[in-house]
């Protein structure tokens, strides 16, 4: 059942990205159909890669490597650049740091979810909880967003859907106190994962930033050896402008 859901999700993702993929492929194909490799070819290729949000530094590094390779391999036909570009892009992706896998945190751990408003922290918590529950872990969702209206109720729904435990205080309560109680409960059980939902905030929200500092202080103090992972949730469309 889970495998079917993953398959449907991947199918929808591929379908959603098909327009962007087709457009990018078309632009690159046009460059590689030129009669010979000129400065214009390199300029157009740079513009395409930057436009695809590859990033300035990565784009310049890729193009420089391609220029070196065509000299070494004595390539003069732009059409032959395609495979070299493919290899360079794969190499660039392989240099990315390994992804953080919350599943490897051990039998007992705490995950703090932070970020600005509207980036999907609470929804991400629901998905993460479902993943960890599927692996047989005991999960507790901690409602430390006592600021936003209906935040507690929303998180409680995710707890119910994922089969997770749920800890809350009243709206407007001290968020750090919620975290404190949750860690005491975690210690009493001796195993499990606490996933802490925090209020969305910008760095200009002084009171909320101070609240977040307090949450972190209380978490680290009370964890006392329990692994703590802080995950920053950001908008996937932020790209190189973030």
Secondary-structure blueprint of this entry?
Blueprint: H1 2-32, H2 39-51, H3 56-73, H4 81-94, E1 108-114, H5 121-134, E2 139-144, H6 151-162, E3 165-167, H7 175-189, E4 192-198, H8 206-223, E5 228-232
Parallel strand pairs: 1-4, 1-5, 2-3, 2-4
Helix pairs in contact: 1-2, 2-3, 3-4, 5-6, 7-8
Would you identify the CATH architecture of the largest domain?
Answer: 3-Layer(aba) Sandwich
Given helix and strand content, the structural type is alpha/beta
Sheet with the most strands: spatial strand order: 3-2-4-1-5
How would a textbook summarize the main sheet?
A: 5 strands, parallel
CATH H-level homologous superfamily name of the largest domain: P-loop containing nucleotide triphosphate hydrolases
Helix content: 55-70%
Mean pLDDT: 86
* Alpha carbon gap, first and last residue: 37 Å
Question: How many domains would you count in the coordinates?
Answer: 2
Number of helices: 8
* Shape designation: elongated
Uncertain ranges: none
Classified by CATH, the class of the largest domain is Alpha Beta
Q: What's the helix-strand series? A: HHHHEHEHEHEHE
Rg, Å, rounded: 24 Å
The CATH topology of the largest domain corresponds to Rossmann fold
Instruction: Please indicate the percent range of residues in DSSP E strands (runs of 2 or more).
Output: 5-15%
How many strands in all?
A: 5
